[in-house]
Fold each of these.
Amino acid sequence: MRDNPEYSRRIILAVDEVSKDSVDRIIDATSPFIEIYKIGSIAFTVFGPSIIDEIINRGKEVFLDLKYFDIPNTVSKAVQQAVSYGVKMLTLHTLGGYDMLKAAAEANKGKATLLGVTLLTSLDAAQIGRIGIEHDVPDMVGRLAVLARDAGIDGLVASGHELEELRNILGDKPVIVVPGIRIQNGIPAGDQKRVVSPKRAFESGADYIVIGRPVTESADPADAVQKILNTLTRGE
Ligand code: C5P
């Protein structure tokens, strides 16, 4: 088990808010404990690139989670623009295919950590089947992970349930970020289907975990982060 400050740098807080007051309230409350904030399609659509500047100006880092999924030329230009904002991490869908992933890696030029999303943690086997994917979840995640690695992507966003298998396939090198985190007696899983606890995620090989609503929907976000850190350091 690593010590508290180190965990603090490995918990990414998802800021999926539409009101600036909520964004400010959440960041003000959690900034003593959180170093990386995740800006996804919600906050980016509402506030635009200025939200990235604001977080960087507070001395924090930004994980820009726009999950690019388009033709290689479009993704390449979007990645070039995103890395010019100084983001630390950036996501794209591995289902976009090898050429798209390679174009993104080339456009990035090693500036941000490029992370491939395999299968969203909100998808369970039934939904994946309805899409028409006939491989089971672990097999499909493994295939997409190898594809991303071969295309030069730095790491993956993956469910805690596939982590150990991914480490077996890919080894220690790729950065793995795990969303779909829930804590005991916390808020319900909601739309997240393949959830794990913070402790289980780190034990299984996560470099970072992403937590959103268990903290942002709490009446006391700072207390919620501290409780998560406590579960890690006490080994609960
Ligand atoms: O609120 P919650 O803790 O469920 O937030 C999880 C965050 O991680 C959301 O911002 C969601 O977009 C993101 N995410 C995810 N599953 C992925 C990739 C990202 O839930 N595979």
Note: The pocket of cytidine-5'-monophosphate is lined by residues 14, 16, 38, 40, 65, 117, 120-121, 157, 179-181, 192, 210-214 (CB under 6 Å).
Amino acid sequence: MAEVQRDVMEMDVLFVGAGPSSLAGAYHLANLIKKHNDAIDSGSKQGRKIQLENGIGILEKGKNVGDHMLSGAVMDPSGIKELIPDFMEKGFPIESEVTGESVYLLTEKGKFKFPLLPPTLQNHGNYICSLNKVAEWLADQISKEFSDTVNIFPEFPGKEVLYEGDKVIGIRTGDKGVDHNGNLKSNFEAGVDIHAKITILGEGPRGSLTKQLVPKLKLDADRNPQVYGTGVKEIWEIPAGRLKKGMVIHTAGWPLSSDHYGGSWMYMMSDTTWSVGFVSALDYANPTFDPHAAFTKFKTHPYIAKLLDGGKMIGYGAKTVSEGGYWSMPKLYADGVLLIGESGGFINISRLKGIHLAIKSGMLAAEAAFEALQKQDYSESTLKRFDELFRASWACHELWGSRNWRQNFTGSFYSGMIKAGMQIYLTNGGTKKRTLLHVDYEHMKKKSESGTPITKVKADETITFEKLTDVYYSGTKHEENQPCHLVIQPDDLADICNTRCKEEFGNPCQHFCPAQVYNMIVPEEGKPSQLRIDFSNCVHCKTCDIADPYQVINWVTPEGGGGPIYKNM
Ligand code: SF4
């Protein structure tokens, strides 16, 4: 594509990704500035007022704030209580308080209830929420209270980090109106260069800008790599009386093999609305493993099938989740930039929770940004304050307590449970030295070494569904005539999919994508099968970017506004 003229927009502070971390961060920063300036005006504080020149911006790739948000979700309210103490009075969207909880170990036909709830899965005092409603609500609070300071820009995907040397000076947003061959269409709009004094990345798991930034600035030096699981979720309407509103159930075991970390969640959002999902770690060995198929099989278990019987699936989604924990957190700051939420690894997988940590990370970044604005210094030495604030906070205390959790589960799930139990009850989280994790895709074995392919359940389209039926219920849409956002690169490796990968791994992308984006099709009778990428089905989960054994799939942001439209997720 020919060079195009781009507008430059200036911001004081730019948040990328309108998830809970960025929304909380922007709200808190605007609030700190307002309180500071009001105190100076009233004479109760000495000093200089902070005059924002261009305001605070939040970019969101989805059509609306919340559209791409998906989580279980049971939320620990400690983050939101700090951010907006009267959150309940202001109508925070809670589906239910947790009213009861159970954990089961599943076998193929049976189940065993854990006699004691592990402390990490105790949810008394927590709330069942829909993350996309939480994001919508936070955006609404910003527009009610700080619309003069904070601007939210939906349909603006961050495409590229902008640097001056190693200093981050902002980001470039994606172009609109480019056809699938890269030609400009009549509705072409060039992406904008947004320059900011501080850029704060809160992109969620495997963010496409975070993925560029971390290796370039070596923010992962001496850290574990981030590792992930893929969560596949449906919302169901089930007949009343099956489970009490507020009931929280987790399972481990079947249908995963004993060396595969993962399990299910089932949260009763109302007397009839059920969030049911399954998360599988991506450090698996068998290239035929399929997170959607594992979820499908799980639903055929007699206990689950009975609960779903007579119900109706009304929503679908999938997303990866960062599981590495404390030792996988990158360095959180550099010149002009901070990393928050899952971009910074703020998630406690031992508790299956991250919303409270995302909110807290946004607040701490806002406090560091506030001090930088006061000093008018946005260098690494000032932004380091974010790390200091984090280390002095309950968020660090919590993440430190589960620092070795995921490492326990890189072999047998059962020995992992014993090790995790000992860490919880006897050794205060285990060793204080970093214990290693390896990047997910390195665990995948070639066809010749991985044993028999994993059998899949044929969908009955009543309790179990084909991927494409599920995708329909995710509301996913993309402009069809645009460049494919699943880029096989470098170009000279593009044919690896149709040759080497087919031979060695059997094209695992066909299996691990929960939206059937990757299809091996026979173009003509007698011709070898070839990969076809149906990118418009993509639900932006990022599994392919993580699990591809050759690491040639690069998930880049599609045209703004494309992707799932999650409701109640
Ligand atoms: Fe997820 Fe990749 Fe499939 Fe999109 S193409 S749904 S990001 S695995």
Note: DSSP finds 15 helices and 24 strands in the chain.
